[in-house]
Specification:
Structural class: mainly beta
Number of helices: 2
Low-confidence stretches: 12-19
Mean pLDDT: 85
Shape: elongated
Helix content: under 10%
Oligomer: single chain
Strand order of the largest sheet: 11-12-13-14-15-16-17-18-19-20-21-22
Strand content: over 45%
């Protein structure tokens, strides 16, 4: 009798724990149980105990029932907070002030409280790579990169910096073989769901191109060609003013810029990032610059990843006797922080 008295409360507790979960029913009849993280109107992310985070096409979702309150934001900017359930093509939100009904096709985003708290918070990463050799010749190669992003529904601010240093010691003679720094600041503002405006400034220093400082100021318009939870593709075009301060001369020129940026999550652990910008020179016709960056990131732990980066900088009119192309391959540990570093 005493055992039964213990079993019944335990069974009730276990049933309550299991039943307290969000549920998503797909159009094919499959049912997924977990915790709804977010939705951007085209896809929905739900975290499960058995498969981690799953990204579902919104068009494949038949119904949603949340056990915890969600923030539901419509395309006209209205926001309501409460438990969510769906009926036909409508989303019903049980808010503290009463039930609110929102048409399914007018929903811009749907987020859990933790996901909503991350909107507007700074996040990013710190990359480092080091290689050493000792013996008949001593070499040291060190790379360091940092990126910080603050993203909201309307805008994104990005700050970044990378540096490369390489030194070789042979027979007691020390020689620096690479010394370069690249940094910048960019602000993107969404005009609509598909279009955005941007402004930026970049700074470059390369000792072996005899470049003391390059400062580029620019801006323009862009288009979100693909915008899903797993994949984004942005196309952009604009104009810039380029100031180059070399050891022996100074050059100033107007440029146009055309570029694309592609990001894709292969799964919960691996992601790919790529960006290409071309700068045709308007002041000195026929000359141009190309900036290309790509990276493959593999998550090791929550805030730790392994990264492989390839960067290429090409300039058609370097100083006499110098090469116009600088190619850099780095790999090492990435430490992430905040929502944008996930």
């Amino acid at each position: 009798m005493f055992r039964k008295l213990l079993v019944y409360p335990f069974a009730l507790f276990m049933f309550t724990c299991v039943s307290r979960a969000d549920q998503v029913t797909l159009t094919n009849g499959d049912r997924i149980t977990g915790t709804i993280k977010s939705s951007d109107g085209t896809s929905l992310i739900i975290k499960t105990d058995y498969a981690g985070e799953l990204t579902l096409k919104w068009s494949a979702v038949k119904s949603v029932t949340s056990d915890d309150p969600l923030y539901v934001t419509s395309k006209d900017g209205r926001q309501v907070f409460g438990k969510v359930s769906t009926a036909d093509d409508k989303i019903e939100v049980a808010s503290s002030s009463g039930e609110v009904t929102v048409a399914k096709d007018t929903v811009k985003s749907m987020r859990s409280k933790s996901a909503q708290d991350e909107v507007g918070a700074w996040g990013g990463y710190l990359d480092s790579g080091l290689s050493l050799s000792r013996g008949n010749s001593d070499t040291t190669n060190f790379t360091l990169g940092a990126n910080a992003v603050r993203a909201t529904d309307k805008s994104k601010t990005t700050i970044f910096a990378t540096s490369l240093y390489s030194r070789s010691d042979v027979l007691g003679v020390s020689t620096t073989t690479a010394s370069a720094i690249n940094a910048g600041l960019r602000y993107d503002h969404n005009i609509s769901d598909r279009t955005f405006a941007f402004v930026f400034t970049n700074f470059d220093h390369d000792r072996f191109q005899e470049l003391d400082l390059r400062n580029v100021l620019g801006g323009g318009l862009g288009f979100h060609a693909i915008k899903t939870t797993a994949t984004t593709l942005d196309l952009s075009a604009g104009a810039t003013f380029n100031q180059e301060y070399y050891t022996t001369l100074t050059r100033r020129s107007a440029e146009v810029v055309a570029g694309e940026a592609f990001d894709h999550k292969l799964n919960g652990a691996v992601s790919l990032h790529e960006r290409l910008d071309a700068y045709p020179n308007v002041t000195d016709l026929g000359q141009y610059r190309i900036v290309f960056d790509t990276a493959a990131i593999t998550k090791i732990a929550k805030f730790l990843s392994w990264q492989v980066d390839v960067s290429d900088r090409y300039q058609s009119n370097p100083l006499f006797g110098l090469k116009g192309n600088d190619l850099l391959l780095t790999t090492g540990i990435r430490v992430t922080f905040g929502p944008q570093g996930k």
